[in-house]
Design a protein that fits this description.
The protein is α+β, with helices and mostly antiparallel strands. It contains eight helices and 20 strands. The two termini are 24 Å apart.
């Protein structure tokens, strides 16, 4: 059966899938989102919501490194208005904070790495500067006296991912975009390539299929998107830190209502998103307290784990596969950051328009041509 009259079916209910559905709906496309729900929890729910491209341009991204930075920078520039529009439309507070970010150093070797990062960012037109430890403490008085230098990214920002997801859900409801609660098991082949079947046994068909699923959906291109487990915690802390602080071994993100997120570990391969290592959380808290001593002993509110969708070069996969399906995958730790710009670009591509950014660096074809999609 046709997917309830929808022309476009987006497989994946994370932030990439929902922002894309919103962008398509705004262009008049009838769209449905197929969301597996808690069976395959979104990486979005576990994220901290940092919008920090200044810290996402390095050798780890390989060939697409500059393209990854430019995508992040474009999306960062969109986020202030995007957050305001979501809040005005839905009444859901998304906790957008434009206070900037600090990357901290305790020793010369760390300072050198941060200075190299700042130089890369400024060479591409970004805002990043090296400041002394004393200047960092002027911005954040609670920082440790051990900090000798910092990368200051004044335009980097953050949101609360869980609030953003609630706002997006409300926005899609207003646009009459249906969220189908189902886990897709497989796609058809040949003439049936526009069909897909759910674990529940229901069959669907859509003129256009967009794959925006996470790392463990079983649907992503073989070997090209894989899980990267991350563990994090939230503690009770009001007003100690006012902006994102990225310390060696931990990031620190203040949120509304006295909630402060500390993260995150990074481990390739585990599929278990339920268990959280006490040792991992203790390590994160120790690293955070070294940077901000006032955080030591604060009450823990929550701890969790999530599975980021990693790729071999750390860059997303956006474009179309050999079977005509559209791909919006593998945003790793930057799904929240990339969402508005990626949604605009993919919506244009799907509707036959010229995307506002060059998607060629993110094509699946950059990997081995022998892999099947």
């Amino acid at each position: 059966m046709k997917a309830k009259g929808f022309d476009i079916a987006i497989i994946g209910g994370g932030v990439i899938g929902l922002t894309l559905a919103r962008a398509l709906a705004d262009r008049g496309a009838t769209t449905a989102v197929v969301d597996a729900g808690p069976v395959l929890p979104q990486a979005t729910h576990a994220a901290a919501g940092m919008l920090a491209p200044s810290f996402e341009y390095g050798e780890e991204f390989g060939g697409p490194a500059e393209a990854v930075y430019r995508l992040g920078a474009l999306s960062l520039a969109m986020w202030k208005d995007y957050a305001a529009a979501l809040e005005e439309e839905t009444g859901v507070f998304v906790d957008y904070r434009g206070d900037g970010a600090l990357g901290l150093s305790y020793r010369d070797a760390q300072t050198e790495l941060l200075a190299e990062q700042a130089a890369r960012v400024t060479s591409l037109g970004g805002a990043a500067e090296m400041i002394s430890g004393d200047e960092a403490r002027e911005l954040e008085p609670a920082l440790s006296a051990d900090i000798v230098a910092a990368l200051h990214a004044p335009k980097d920002t953050q949101v609360d991912p869980r609030r953003v997801m609630a706002a997006l859900a409300a926005s899609l409801e207003k646009r009459q975009v249906e969220i189908i609660k189902a886990r897709v098991l497989s796609f058809g082949d040949g003439e049936a390539s526009r069909q897909f079947v759910s674990v529940e046994g229901d069959a669907y068909e859509a003129e256009t299929i967009v794959l925006a699923a996470g790392a463990v959906s079983g649907l992503t291109p073989m070997g090209l998107v894989y899980p990267v487990k991350g563990e994090a915690t939230a503690i009770a802390s009001e007003g100690v830190i006012t902006r994102v602080v990225r310390a060696p071994g931990a990031y620190i993100c203040p949120k509304a209502e006295g909630r402060l997120v500390i993260g995150a570990t990074e481990e390739i391969g585990p599929l278990d998103h339920h268990s959280v290592s006490p040792a991992a959380i203790a390590g994160l808290r120790a690293n955070a307290a070294r940077a901000v001593p006032a955080l030591e002993g604060a009450e823990e509110l929550e701890r969790w784990a999530g599975l980021r969708p990693g790729t071999p070069d750390g860059a997303p996969i956006m474009g179309q596969d050999e079977k005509g399906r559209f791909l919006a995958l593998g945003h790793f730790r930057n799904g929240i950051l990339h969402a508005p710009a990626a949604a605009q670009a993919m919506a244009a591509l799907i509707l036959g328009e010229t995307p506002p950014i060059d998607l060629a660096p993110f094509s699946k074809s950059r990997f081995s041509s022998g892999r099947d999609g």
